[in-house]
Amino acid sequence: MNRWKIISWNLLHRSGAMVDDIAALILLENPDLFLMQEATHSIDILTSMIGGHYVRQPWADRKHGLAIWSSSAMSQTRPLPLPASRIPGSFPTRMAQILQFDDITIANVHLSHGQLLNRRQLTTIAKSTSGPTTIIGDYNTFGPVFLKGFSDVGPHRITHLAQKILPFRLDRCMVRDLNCSETKVLQKGPSDHRPIRIDLFSV
User: Fold this and answer.
1) pLDDT tens-digit map of 55-109
2) Could you tell me how far CA 102 lies from the centroid of its own chain?
3) β-pairing, 104-110 with 166-168?
4) What does DSSP assign to residue 106?
5) How many Cβ atoms from other residues are within 10 Å of residue 51's Cβ?
6) Radius of gyration of the chain (CA)
7) CATH fold of 2-202, please?
8) Angle, alpha carbons 170-45-7 (nearest 5°)
9) Burial of 11 by CB count in 10 Å (0-12 exposed, 13-18 middle, 19+ buried)?
10) Whole-angstrom Cα distance, residue 140 to residue 37?
11) Are 9 and 25 in contact (CB under 8 A)?
């Protein structure tokens, strides 16, 4: 049986979690993988602070992007372009960060705000991967998500307060051909999103 502890956190790139906050959470929780959304170049010194392995995937025309830290060696990640809005400038083009880790595929995501668009993006990820797969990150999704072959394992709690008032469950994990023993919303840090922890295993 293989087990993985994974943490995902939208850092809030302008004024949110900094590299010290990330390092402290990694040392506290000891995850196998730490997925980040809205990561900037300021996070690139993470491995010099705590070791491990790190890959950041910038987005075109954005100061931030996606990043993954791992406690053990990992293959290079690859970008997966996602569907974009046909209305220019309405929803910026997004990419998932795809990692083959052990015998599973991890998709680190920060999906668009458009509710039909982000579901199309999830479908693209599902069709572009095979076998045991997990899609983790900021879904920007309201309400239930139905994705053929995948289960929404949570966490089923509020992870974000819009304008510090409106509660939403934006940060999620869906899995295919994997099992989940526990999910948890962690203590809120400097970001407007709370980190989530997912414990997965395969048999």
Assistant:
1) 999 987 788 999 999 999 999 899 999 998 877 655 668 999 999 999 999 999 9
2) 18
3) unpaired
4) E
5) 11
6) 16
7) Deoxyribonuclease I; Chain A (3.60.10)
8) 30
9) buried
10) 12
11) yes
